[in-house]
Amino acid sequence: MLASRSSLFPPRLQLDAFGHIITVFHGRKSLSAEEIEERYPASFINMSDLSTSRYFVMNTLFNIPEICAFADIVHFFSEREGYTELEDGTGMQAKHTLLTFRSMFHDVRGAMEHIHSRGVLQAKIMEDLDKYVQKEPQLPILLRRISDSGKGCFLLTNSDYNYTKVIMNYLFTVDLPEGWDRDWQSYFDLIVVSARKPLFFRDGTVLREVDQETGKLKLGQYSGGSHRGRVFSGGSADIISEMLGKMGDNILYVGDHIFGDVLKSKKLRGWKTFLIMPELHQELRSLHAGMKYYQRLKNLEFMLAELYRGLASDATEEPDASELKKAIDDTSKTLDRVFNHYFGSTFRSGSRQSFFAMQTSRYADLYSSSLLNLINYPLFYNFHSVALSLPHESGLWKR
């Protein structure tokens, strides 16, 4: 999902794997195909533009409340009596009050940055851990299995030490077998907080040790010695690889941020990657609920292909496919609403895979709703994906 920071209009866009526009929303309103064509004649966004100031990529769970807040604010002022949209489409006005869509976006974005960077969000979570943090009794079991197997395990987080300590202590207040260590730090060979990902995967920052009594950083740069039992702040992928004695695809990195965790660690460091997506639970439920629409969509697309199949090269009259194309479009929209009335599926619209689905397929070696799904496999398990045939291969190899 993208938010446009253009001053002309404030839509949210969903792209397919190649940059073609799938859906566009203005507030809560879904734009029609005609409206999309008017604003985006090519119905296409150049991928290189995604890193410019015109667009802001929103592809994490953390972005969902931000997207909703922005959409609701635009919708509120678009529907509010006394406010009219400016002729140039840049915002709303009521008497002497001017609200541009660009300023609305920056206000919401600034608020999200504020509560995250100033610790407001973390403080709210720590006030009610039972409400916001889900305990998993199997977590210590999985980490113990990793340790007993002789494989190293490290914790890398952008959170500061004090917040990390509170969360980890809470996660480990579960029933454990007799004799098991309840100290969460004992389950990790290396602990790094305030990592500043994705900068961590490029140049990184100075590695410093954390004073675990005060939560403050010790003076100077960490210069070596045993790192087990210590907590570090900052650093870089190069430093961590040296401390662990592992690099490249000998490291499996588990994270829940497609850009800051998975994409950067894969592209810049060649690490094996495991993307955690809790939203897969809802995605799978919606897949089952929408199965009849998906099957209908595939049948309609097959019928459309058959309409053109076998036409002679000298045919002069194109078959009328308007009704089929409308049925495909209507079925795609119905299927999208099964997943989410406003956003549709994270991974597709109709039969077209989303930009996020492409990123996941390209940069995540594994993805799952939870790290704990690994507990169902031996630690030497080798996951394999089904090899996909190219179009010129599939017809021959199926014979």
TrEMBL record:
Transmembrane segments: none
Key words, A-Z: Hydrolase, Magnesium, Metal-binding
Gene3D superfamilies, per database record: HAD superfamily/HAD-like
GO terms of biological process kind: GMP metabolic process
A Pfam family this chain is assigned to: 5_nucleotid
GO molecular function, one term: 5'-nucleotidase activity
Annotated signal sequence range: none
Coiled-coil boundaries: none
Keyword Lyase: no
Family per similarity comment: Belongs to the 5'(3')-deoxyribonucleotidase family.
Protein name in the entry: Cytosolic purine 5'-nucleotidase
